[in-house]
Amino acid sequence: MLPRKLKIAQRSHLPPFMAMEVMAKAAAMEQAGQDILHLEIGQPSSSAPKSVMAGMSSIMAEQRNHGYAVALGLPELRERIARHYQDWYDVDVPVDRVAVTVGSSTAFALSFMAAFDEGDQIALPNPGYPAYRNLMLGMGVEPVMLPAGVDDGWMPNLKQMERWDRLPEGLIIASPHNPTGVIIAADELREITAFCRANGVRLISDEIYHGLSYQTRAETALKFTDDAIVVNSLSKYFSMTGWRIGWMIMPDELAAPVERLAQNLYISAPTPNQRAAIAAFDCAEELDLHCERYAHNREILLNTLPSAFIGNAAPCDGAFYLYCDISALSDDSIAFAADLLEATGVATTPGVDFDQENGHRYLRLSFAGATEVIEEAASRISDFVAKRLSNAA
Ligand SMILES: Cc1ncc(COP(=O)(O)O)c(C=O)c1O
Fold it and tell me: What is the atom index within ligand 1 of the atom nearest the CA of 246?
């Protein structure tokens, strides 16, 4: 008898994350000595707030065993997060509904595991952050794409859901949105929560880009409902991507299941990082300066990039992304991003990461970097586009 082949699970056949592949190619070019401008990855170039760094140094200087924390997080951090909802949104959040997670990424995994069964469906905006879909596929939960492109004013189109044969068990929204930067206005958020309540749809609201808005502030779903799972983290506004501290605000009935899942999945988020992170919530002065830089970078891109490149771009009212419609130049965003990287050293992300249907016409640029980098990138892209257009003429 032939030996049985070692098994690989079906769920391991996930689509690649193109942003990471572009990053790998850009890194290889950089290592070979080329001057690369990184507009492909959504992370601030600035460091964690100064007082968080100072706090971490003293925690390290204690030279003691930094053991596990309890699964739902250090009580002081959970309390500070609850107070943040009072400070920012004037919403009361009981501490026992706060869970500290390892980035918001594990909060999604916990939410899917705690609230949904295999075979359940979750609707998610298209375009949208690819990890939602990939994680669901890995868990046997079926992602159902909810149009949120240019034809729908870049907003998740709930009317479509009403026409589906089967209402999904869950709905994810993100505001400000990745990759479009679109913010859901408070009135629309109220309608979405009402729709979910009326139809028994569990809402997951990704609020990771809160604090980064250029026109109107984003409201929390908790203003309108206690049934939603609200996910957030220190990665974006707080400029602490690699610290891997996120959180979720859970409905009462999910607190015990989430605690049991967290105990088994990762035991606890890193204890020293949790301790140091508490100070981050009192650093608005420093962090708002980063936000001013993003606003300035955003203006540079909007004012200097050629219209053929920006095209019918999404509104970009928040987060730090410009989702450009490059259809006047190419209908293959992967090839276009590769050509742009090769010719100019500017790394961007092809839209196919965020939208498998129409993403071939879009490119995402992150403007979270230093202003000099954004200025130089805009100039290189403009030259590249001018050459491409004159070659085509
Ligand atoms: C919309 C959105 N949600 C969640 C995440 C995950 O972030 P983290 O795990 O660092 O909190 C990201 C990261 O880019 C994102 O863009």
Answer: 11
How far apart CA 322 and CA 150 sit, in angstroms, is 14
Residues of the chain with CATH 3.40.640.10: 10-48+284-392, 50-282
> Which of 233, 321, 323 for a ligand 1 pocket mutation test, highest count of atoms within 8 Å of Cβ?
233
Q: Which of the listed residues 208, 230, 239, 323 should we mutate to test ligand 1's pocket, taking the one with most ligand atoms within 8 A of CB?
A: 208
Q: How far is the CA of 99 from the centre of ligand 1 (A)?
A: 17
Helices (H), the chain: 18-31, 50-61, 75-89, 103-115, 130-139, 158-163, 186-199, 252-265, 271-277, 284-304, 307-310, 333-344, 371-392
Could you please state the CATH topology (level 3) that the domain comprising 50-282 is classified under: Aspartate Aminotransferase; domain 2 (3.40.640)
Query: Mind listing the pLDDT tens digit for each residue in 217-270?
Result: 999 999 999 999 999 999 999 999 999 999 999 999 999 999 999 999 999 999
**Helices 18-31 and 333-344 sit at what angle, rounded to 10 degrees?**
20
Find the residues whose C-beta lies inside 6 A of ligand 1: 42, 103-105, 129, 174, 178, 206, 208, 233, 235, 241, 246
Ligand 1 centroid from CA 20, angstroms? 14
The pTM assigned to this predicted structure is: 0.95
Q: Which CATH class is domain 10-48+284-392?
A: alpha beta
